[in-house]
Amino acid sequence: MVPEVASRNHALKLRPLVERALAEANLHALDVDAFAATRGPGLASSLLVGHSMAKALAAAAAKPFLSINHMEGHLLSPFLDSELFRAQSEIPPHLALIVSGGHTMLVHARDLGDYRLLGRTIDDAAGEAFDKVGRLLGLPYPGGPEIEARARTGDPASFPFPRSMPRGLDFSFSGLKTAVRYTLPDLEDLDSQLANLCASFQQAVIDVLVGKALRAARQADCKLVALSGGVSCNRALRQGLREACRQAGLDFLPCPPNLSTDNAAMIAFAALLHLQRGATGDFREDIDPNLPLVAEL
Ligand code: KG4
Ligand code: ZN
């Protein structure tokens, strides 16, 4: 990704996008109660475009401006459209597994804004592993949905890829990617093995994610496991985690697939929850490309 090109595209597309969103919602900007934007983590030049525009809109409409952590947006997204939230209007204590292109995290969410990081990846994120293996296999970007589609007709037991289990609740996916790379030269015909490779790789990722998520839920004494981030689109992962939770007697709440990859609704939802808890917003907030969800372990 070229940051300069990405942020120019943001600048060009954001205004028409906001106008369309307001038109579809049948709203005028002055009718909006509050404005929010992602503060970080992410590419500085792209964050700045959205942050500045939301600040300008809030200032013009004389409404609060809230700066939201992108990862908190993912973490809360499973509750956005859930019966559980509608019934309680509260975020219940839970174990969150957040799997995106840039992050893989296990978080004990005790309350809105009260998050404890239990584990994270020490090298590649889960989505990054899907994207890198996709590239190795000659598939288009992003690799996640491409690999999932091919894995459907493959046998997950055909290649014995490693289930890397670093100490505690951390993850490591770079060894798995290397294992796929070393398998390729030995294959006579990649095309005939593509579905098996995809299924075996995907199952290795799922086994590790599911195993550690359940261990984390036990350690933190959580009765509910929530799943979010772009990789949570993956149906095999959702099914695997749902079944493991069922066997362990835990409730499971996956993010709806249309809210799994990056979206503005999850940022608005996080802002709404903070407003309801009394947040008033702050125009002095600045972007932070390396913003952590919680202080490091
Ligand atoms: O959360 P997201 O939209 O962006 C970040 O904040 O990183 O996640 C994007 C990631 C990409 O790595 C993409 O390959 C992965 O989510 N992804 C999937 C699937 N759909 C998207 N990974 C596995 N299976 C999928 N169906
Ligand atoms: Zn994201």
Give your account of this protein's structure.
- The protein has 297 residues and is of the alpha/beta class.
- It contains ten helices and seven strands.
- The chain has helices at residues 3-24, 44-61, 70-76, 83-88, 126-136, 143-151, 174-183, 190-220, 235-248, 265-276; strands spanning 35-40, 65-69, 94-99, 104-111, 114-120, 224-228, 251-254.
- A five-stranded mixed sheet has the order 5-4-3-6-7, sandwiched between helices.
- A hairpin with a 4-residue loop joins strand 3 and strand 4.
- Helix 8 runs parallel beside helix 9 (235-248).
- The mean pLDDT is 96.
- Bound molecules: 5'-O-[(R)-(carboxyoxy)(hydroxy)phosphoryl]adenosine and zinc ion.
- The site of zinc ion (ZN) has 4 residues, from helix 3.
- The site of 5'-O-[(R)-(carboxyoxy)(hydroxy)phosphoryl]adenosine has 19 residues, from helix 5 and helix 6.
Task: Describe the protein's topology.
Blueprint: H1 3-24, E1 35-40, H2 44-61, E2 65-69, H3 70-76, H4 83-88, E3 94-99, E4 104-111, E5 114-120, H5 126-136, H6 143-151, H7 174-183, H8 190-220, E6 224-228, H9 235-248, E7 251-254, H10 265-276
Parallel strand pairs: 1-2, 3-6, 6-7
Antiparallel strand pairs: 3-4, 4-5
Helix pairs in contact: 1-2, 3-10, 5-6, 5-7, 6-8, 8-9
Bound molecules: 5'-O-[(R)-(carboxyoxy)(hydroxy)phosphoryl]adenosine and zinc ion.
Zinc ion is lined by residues 70, 74, 100, 262.
